Amino acid sequence: MTIYWLLFAFPAIMALAYPIRTERYIPGPAQGLALMAFVLFYVLLGALRFETGGDWLTYGEMFDEIQSESLLYAVTTTDPLYGVINWMSAQLGTGIYLVNGICCFVLGYGAVRAALTTREPWLALLIAVPYLLIVVGLGYVRQGAAIGVILIAISSIDRSRPLRTIVYLVIATLLHSSAAMAVPLFGYALIKRNRAFAIVAMVVGALMFVTLLAPRLNQFEIGYIDTEYESSGAGIRLLMGLVPSLLILARYRRFASSARTRSIWIAISIANLMAGVALLISASSTLVDRVALYFSIVQLAAFGDIRDLLGISNRMTFFLRILLIAIAAAVQTVWLVYATHSIYWVPYQSILQNL
Fold this sequence. Notes:
This protein is an all-alpha fold. The protein is 72% helix and 0% strand. It has helices at 2-17, 29-47, 56-67, 71-77, 80-92, 95-115, 121-136, 141-156, 162-175, 187-193, 195-225, 234-250, 259-281, 285-292, 298-304, 306-310, 314-338. The longest helix has 31 residues, at 195-225. The chain starts with a helix and ends in a 17-residue tail after the last helix.
């Protein structure tokens, strides 16, 4: 459990040390090195884990199946890009560890990129640690990597050409087919850039749904809906996304992101509200829980721009940071100590222990 708190302490300490400025600014060399160190720490945490994480056995069996088969089999037996990563790692002899490391890098890098678009990047990273980085990144690695690419797409939409944004969304869907559900969230932002590309994005999204996601709906139905499988704590996790979503929707005029980026965060906030309703009427909380993972990233935007959303003065910023660190620490404590499935993450085990 200690290593998880070290991951938490990194952005918590940096959040307190981060200079308070009225305007956003690009971090200098020292901040850049600190962000790189954070990502490296997280990648090593994910790459070197052994029998740690909720889906360890599932992904381990998937890798064992792929490593003795052809590339074509790897591409068709699971999500294409994830299959390729597994196949390449098998050829290199690096096992499931390189696969996990790559997926953690994509998620960690995406979280950093998204955090840097906010006024308080270390607070944004801090709230990502307890659930997004630890639970999702070290448990649902395919979906975690897909979320990482979506975060990259959000953070770069102001500077990238629309085609690049579409490519990011395609990559996310190739990592986990359910990421196709995130495509509509970018609709307004792409229309503002170029209507032709927005139409292309919708067509591509429809094709991805038909070719990648639709064939797997039967698996979701069998696995989640027909069995009415219940995801423990789904309501609490959705609440964690609902509160910042309501804050953003209520105070969107104070949300200092660009118009295009703001439109995506607003769309995600609305999607969180819809997920909350779906949880009340759905036969499977697990299905809703997994889909809502893509909307949980709204916490980064809310924590990162909390000063703008609440209208907090610079004088009160330090005390606000302490309060938010305490809230994030409480979330992590509840997960690591009291959560039903935390036994899959605690204690953390590393392959280095077996050498």
